[in-house]
Amino acid sequence: MVDEVTVRRAADTAWSVFRATHPDVDASDNRRCLLERHLQRRGEEREGDSEELASLGLAYLHRLPADEC
Asked: Cβ-count burial of 30 within 10 angstroms (0-12 exposed, 13-18 middle, 19+ buried)?
C-alpha cells in the first residue's frame, strides 16, 4: 500500500505533465479528480513509488475520452 503523500505527489506530477502537453485543459478539469481516485485505488492494490504511479496516471489520463469528462 502506498501512502497518501506518494499518491498526491504522483497525481501532481501526472497532472502537470498532462496539462503541459494539453494546454486546452483547464486546471479545474474533472479529469484531475478521476486521476486522483484512480491513483488512490492503484496505490491500495500494490506498492510503488511516485514516479511509477505518475506514469500509470498519465496512461490513465490519455485513455479517458475528453468528451465524457
From this structure: exposed
pLDDT in tens, the chain (69 residues): 778 999 999 999 999 999 999 999 999 999 999 999 999 999 888 777 899 999 999 999 999 987 655
Q: What is the DSSP letter of 67?
A: G
Element (H, E) at 16: helix 4-21
The span from the CA of 49 to the CA of 17, in Å, is 17
Q: What's the whole-model pTM score?
A: 0.87
Residue 18: count other Cβ atoms within 10 Å of its Cβ. Answer: 21
Q: Is 28 helix (H, G, I), strand (E, B) or coil?
A: coil
